[in-house]
Design brief:
Chain B: The chain crosses the membrane at residues 12-30, 42-62, 74-94, 106-123, 129-148, 160-184, 204-221, 233-255, 275-293, 300-318, 324-349, 370-393, 405-425. Chain B: Residues 125-419 form the NADH:quinone oxidoreductase/Mrp antiporter transmembrane domain. Chain B: Its EC number is 7.1.1.-. The structure holds two protein chains of two kinds. Chain A is an all-alpha fold. Chain A has helices at 2-6, 8-29, 33-53, 57-82, 86-89, 91-115, 135-146, 148-169, 181-186, 189-192. Chain A has ten helices and no strands. The longest helix of chain A is centred in the middle third of the chain and has 26 residues, at 57-82. By secondary structure, chain B is mainly alpha-helical. Chain B is 75% helix and 1% strand. Chain B has helices at 12-30, 36-57, 74-100, 106-123, 128-146, 153-184, 189-195, 200-221, 229-236, 239-245, 248-264, 269-292, 297-317, 321-348, 364-367, 369-383, 389-403, 407-433, 447-465, 468-477; strands spanning 63-65, 70-72. A two-stranded antiparallel ribbon of chain B has the order 1-2. In chain B, strand 1 (63-65) and strand 2 form a beta hairpin. Chain B starts with 11 loop residues before the first helix and ends with a helix. The chains are: A mainly alpha, B mainly alpha. At the A-B interface, helix 6 and helix 8 of A face helix 4, helix 5 and helix 8 of B.
């Protein structure tokens, strides 16, 4: 029992990390794209939990708020609206699976040989800070002092994203019907109604 | 509260570039379609001002700013000047092409200038985060540029391919960086270099991170076997965009490769030199052999890029200042040659005619002898025929390779360069000895384009005869 209590953090880490990997695998293997998006939410959530375990509370919560709360919900909307037929996209999956597994196993072996799992034990988590240590404050201090240059570049990148998004989506297609409110307000009766003077017709002749 | 000294005077070129670009954004919003000249002139002015700022700071100025995040040295100054020059040439070449295809919009100039800003940050980055951010700024702008021609299916396909593979490469690079960070506990390039070897247990982790970084770099440079995106993107993108992404970003990628491999991971040079020599030989082989089969000029030049990247990597492998200087010289010359070769395609294209097949050039000498001669200069320079500058680039790299005692690499490079000469000469043959077939490509009447392109072509000859100052600056960048 003591063993479990002592290693609670480690157990929690393996549980969350395992869940994260399993749900990431599910993202690329389930057939239904809505389910895939939901599994992606689970992946983000488990990743956020491992961050919490690493005492990065602020980043964990930001991940949940931004990715789960905003990005993935939008993504789900898009997936639901598009009605993508994924069965066709997945036809090659089984066919290429053996090759993929061979490559994956080779890469895993390389990693194990190169890093050596035991030698990794030299690298641990950084010192555990005290109770009155504020994560948010630390992130803020780092971001706005040491990394302020990078922060500004990130702002420029967002500007580029806006420009690119507008350049690629804003267009006037011929034949689309859209309202021009200014035109509607300025309109005069004479623009809409045309009074045509016509000579009145004579009495129709009654045929006998 | 400690606020780092911002050292704004060191990043003045970037500030001028960013300020000018944002000003251009505002001006362009209010410009009418026939006032697009203003945007065009302003973009060239901003590039000139940036280059002028680099010169005003002094080429030999060195220093770091923002806690080491920004590094100003001779290498960054040389690369920034070259990037500004090549980008300005690309803008001049593209104007009439864009105007003919309803693409002459402010967004093109804005995205090009933002990409230049990204490159400029990338070549003077002193920290892994800044490298990544500069790279992404450059990459995002170029993805959007490729997709700019929205109604063209080829361009859209190329953009998606570029975006997905670019994201994959960024992921690889980031993964490698995270391992380096895990092993050294620092993002600073100088600290990483100092930390290597201090702790035996982390050295293998660093080697592992290096492998991922090399893969990411190879993707970005377009070295075989990570070159699959390159031919499709070069062919699919509008030629004006291909001209840009085929020239200036190679300079930035060289700067990034040097900062990461020599700057941060110099201690692991024996592990990355072997990886790079494999990449270099593969690029030389695949680039040159595949280019022979191409009938599309843009695709052929894309494969030729792969082979030139192989030469660039050969210079990096040596790990000596001479080798780096040769690679830098090669990168600058290649950017000029590549911009020029694509520039000729832009010159010959007109509304509804892309002039992108080799057959379109048949008999060009009879119709437009000057255009044919300019193209001849570029093709001969790309092939490495003396006295053009491409020859001296190759010579310099080969000299460094032989001095470093890697004779087999030099032999392989020469063999593939000779094979490569074939397809460049085929273009020259089509222009001078073949009879015209239907197509009647004629150079566009755009004075700015013809003057800039002719100057670029003659510069191939001029630099080939008088390459002393350029190579002197390249050597100073690494001493």
């Amino acid at each position: 029992m003591d063993l479990i209590v002592d290693n609670l953090e480690l157990i929690a880490f393996y549980a969350f990390a395992g869940l994260c990997l399993a749900s990431a695998l599910a993202v690329i293997s389930v057939r239904n794209s809505v389910h895939a998006a939901l599994f992606l939410v689970l992946t983000f959530f488990s990743a956020a939990c491992t961050w919490l375990l690493a005492r990065a509370e602020f980043l964990g919560i930001a991940l949940v708020l931004v990715y789960v709360g905003a990005v993935m919900v939008l993504f789900l909307f898009v997936v639901m609206m598009l009605d993508v037929r994924t069965e066709k996209l997945r036809e090659g999956f089984i066919r290429y699976l053996p090759v993929g597994i061979v490559v994956a196993v080779l890469m895993l072996m390389q990693m194990v040989v190169l890093i050596g799992v035991r030698r990794m034990s030299g690298i641990g988590l950084a010192d555990i800070p005290g109770k009155d240590f504020s994560n948010t404050e630390a992130v803020g201090m780092k971001l706005f002092t040491d990394h302020v240059f990078g922060f500004e570049i990130a702002a420029v990148i967002l500007t580029v994203a806006i420009i690119a998004a507008i350049a690629l989506t804003l267009r006037r297609r011929a034949g689309t019907k859209h309202q021009d409110i200014g035109e509607q307000v300025r309109v005069k009766a004479s623009d809409r109604v045309r009074i045509v003077k016509m000579p009145s017709e004579g009495k129709p002749e009654v045929r006998q | 509260m400690i606020f780092a000294n911002p050292d704004l005077d060191l990043i003045l070129p970037e500030l001028v570039l960013l300020g000018g670009t944002l000003l251009m954004l505002m001006v362009d919003l209010f410009a009418r379609q026939n006032g697009r000249w203003l945007t065009h002139a302003l973009a060239l002015l901003v590039l000139a001002a940036t280059a002028g700022m680099v010169l005003a700071q002094g080429m030999t100025l060195t220093g770091t700013a923002w806690n080491g995040a920004y590094e100003r040295d001779v290498l960054s100054a040389v690369l920034k000047l070259a990037i500004c020059l090549v980008s300005a040439l690309c803008l001049i070449y593209s104007r009439s092409y864009l105007a003919d295809r309803n693409l002459w919009a402010g967004e093109f100039y804005l995205l090009v200038l933002f990409a230049v800003l990204g490159m400029s940050i990338l070549v003077s980055a002193g920290n892994l985060i800044i490298i990544y951010l500069g790279l992404e700024l450059m990459a995002l702008s170029t993805y959007a540029l490729v997709a700019l021609h929205r109604d063209n299916r080829r361009a859209s396909e190329a953009a998606v391919k570029y975006f997905v593979l670019g994201a994959l490469a960024s992921g690889m690079l980031l993964y490698g960086m995270s391992m380096i960070f895990g092993a050294t506990g620092s993002l600073d390039i100088s600290t990483i270099a100092a930390t290597y070897g201090a702790n035996e247990t982390t050295n293998s982790l660093m080697a592992f991170g290096t492998a991922f970084i090399v893969v990411g770099l190879a993707f970005k440079l377009g070295a075989a076997p990570f070159h699959m995106w390159l031919p499709d993107v070069y062919q699919g993108a509008p030629t004006a965009v291909t001209t840009f992404i085929g020239s200036a970003p190679k300079l930035a990628a060289f700067g990034m490769a040097w900062r990461l491999l020599e700057g941060a991971l110099g201690g692991l040079s024996e592990s990355w030199t072997d990886m790079l020599s494999l990449l270099a030989v593969a690029s030389l082989a695949i680039g040159n052999l595949a280019a022979i089969m191409q009938t599309n000029l843009k695709r052929m030049l894309a494969y030729s890029t792969i082979s030139h990247v192989g030469f660039l990597l050969l210079g990096l492998i040596q790990g000596t200042p001479d080798g780096y200087a040769a690679a830098l010289f090669y990168a600058i010359c290649y950017a000029l040659m590549s911009a020029g070769a694509f520039g000729v395609i832009l010159w010959l294209a007109r509304q509804g005619f892309e002039a992108e097949d080799i057959d379109d050039l048949k008999g060009l000498n009879q119709r437009a002898p000057w255009a044919a001669f300019v193209m001849l200069l570029f093709m001969a320079s790309l092939a490495g025929i003396p006295p053009l500058v491409g020859f001296f680039g190759k010579l310099m790299v080969l000299k460094a390779v032989i001095e470093a005692g890697r004779l087999w690499l030099a032999i392989a490079a020469v063999v593939f360069a000779v094979i490569g000469a074939f397809y460049y000469l085929r273009v020259i043959k089509a222009m001078y000895f073949d009879k015209p077939e239907g197509a009647d490509a004629m150079p566009a009447k755009d004075r700015g384009l013809s003057i800039a392109l002719s100057a670029n072509g003659l510069a191939q000859l001029g630099l080939g005869l008088y390459w002393g100052p350029l190579i002197a600056w390249c050597l100073r960048a690494f001493s």
